[in-house]
Amino acid sequence: MHRRREIRLFALMVPPLAAAVVLGATAREAAAQGVPLVPHRAVYELALDPAKSNSKIDKAVGRIAFEMTGNACEGYTVTLRQVTELDTGEGRQTVSDLRTISWEDGAGKSYRFKTQNYLNQDLKDDVDGTVERAADGGFSVRLAKPKTAPFPLRGPILLPTEHLRRLIVAGVAGERILEAKVYDGAPDGKKVYDTLSVIGAGVDGAKNVEEPAQKPELAAHKRYPVTISYFEEGAGERTPAYVLGFELYENGVSRALKLDYGGFALRGELKAIEFLKASPCKK
Predict the structure, then answer these.
(1) Which of 18, 77, 145, 262 fits a disulfide with 128 by CB distance 3.0 to 4.6 angstroms?
(2) What is the pLDDT of residues 54-74, one digit of tens each?
(3) Secondary structure (3-state) at 74
(4) Full-model pTM
(5) CA–CA separation, 238 and 196 (whole Å)
(6) What is the C-alpha end-to-end distance of the chain, expressed in Å?
(7) What sign does the CA torsion over 139, 142, 146, 152 have?
(8) 3-class DSSP state for residue 178?
(9) What is the C-alpha to C-alpha distance for residues 60 and 57, in angstroms, rounded to an integer?
(10) Is 57 helix (H, G, I), strand (E, B) or coil?
């Protein structure tokens, strides 16, 4: 149930965009690559969202541990672990343990990822793959687990960190909509999701936030409310497979998570954040 796409904030893709987009495609790419993402570790505490009740879920608790390191020259390494416990109130508990690590080239041309998902300690998903950008903006994918022959994904498609930087550029530019195809390897290394991101107006970074978000590294930046709807590829009207909400700072940090699975939703509160030493980009 809990897959890496469900928490990618950083989720958090460049098909033809709406006419409201201010910058041209080339300028957007250059601007996105210039966004300085801060290396950091963050911990989020998960709880059932009372605003979306579900008679089948009495309680939900969990935690997300997230780390991002690297820069635009070396590429970005992201590690994530999400453990979630669901209680139906009938003596039945389900524990999901998602573990991922990925590396993405700073220009969005290469990507490596490993994902394992355990359900009640049984390994349900085990994916290991590498991706190289193709001429059409899509990718050539090689999966070591499960072992498959190389296959193409037709573009244009964005990778996770590339998408994150596009969201920041859009927010700073005052754009409110970003449509994109997204690939992060979840759940089986083969899927591409159509996404629609709605970006709110920027607010002061220090206003009405929890204590960890009051650190000067965040207080100095604006943050933008973002809601990303993920759709299975297709045509016509579709219901989102998943909706992710968060507040995104200009340096790539996120707070106030909301993970909407359809039947129920989880809230994620930032409980701790540590800013890591940044290595200079030598390009």
Answers:
(1) 145
(2) 667 888 999 999 999 999 999
(3) coil
(4) 0.87
(5) 12
(6) 41
(7) positive
(8) strand
(9) 7
(10) coil
